[in-house]
Amino acid sequence: MSVSAPDTDFALAAERCEPSDSPIIRAAARGLAPLIQVVGLYVFFHGHYSPGGGFQGGVLLAASFILLRLGFGLQQTQCVMPSHLTIPLSAVGGLIFLGTGFVALFCGGNFLDYSFLPVPGLKTAYIHNYAILFIEVGVTITVMATLVAIFDHLLDG
Amino acid sequence: MKLHQFLVLLAFAAVLTMAAFELPARGDAGSPANRASLERLVAGAHYISHAGRDAATPNMVTVILADYRSFDTLGETLVVFAGGIACLFILRRLKS
Prior knowledge:
heterodimer, A: mainly alpha
C-alpha cells in the first residue's frame, strides 16, 4: 500500500532537519543547550522550594534536546538523545512513578502512601520528601522523553 | 442536528457560567473548602496546617501535587505517556 502524499511530506520534513547552514544558529544551539539543561535541572530540583517540578523541568530538558536537533540535525544528535530510546524512556518514567506506588502498596500502606516505603533510618517526613523527589524524577523523564519522541516522529515518521 | 447540538452546548455553557459565578472568591478563608471548624479539618485547612510537617518540604503546592494528590499526578504522567504513544502511532511512517 503506497500513500504518496504523507510520505513526501515526511521526506521533506526529514530533509529539513539537516544540520543548520548558519554558524550563528549552530553556535547558539551549542552554547544555549547546556544552559537550558542546567536551568531545567534547577527547576526540577528546586520544585521543593519554589515554583517548579517535574513537568516544567522535563519540558526545559526536552527544549534543550530539540534545540540541539534544530541546530545539528537529527543524525548528529543521536548520541545525545537516541530516537529509539525516547518512548522506552517515557515508559520508564511512568514505571518509576507506578513502582513507587506499588512498593508502598506491598509494604502495607495504601497505593502511593509514602509513609510505608521501606527506607531505613529516615524520619517519615523525610521519606515523604525524598519520595516526592523520586516520583518527580519519573515525571521529568516521561515529559522530556515524550516531547522529544513527538518531535522525532514529526520529523522522521 | 447542528442546531440541536448547538442548543445543548449553549445549555452547558449557561450551567457552567452560573456555577462559576457561585464560586467563592479566590483565597477566601471563610469558604467551605478552607473553613476549619473545631470538630474537623476540611481539606484546604488540613493541607495548609500539615503540609510542612508531613513532608518536610516548604513548597505546599509540591506537597499537595506529589504527595496528597499523587494519584492525580500519576494520571497526568500517564496521560503524557499516552499522548506520546498516540503520536507514535499517528505519525509513524507507513510501511509501503
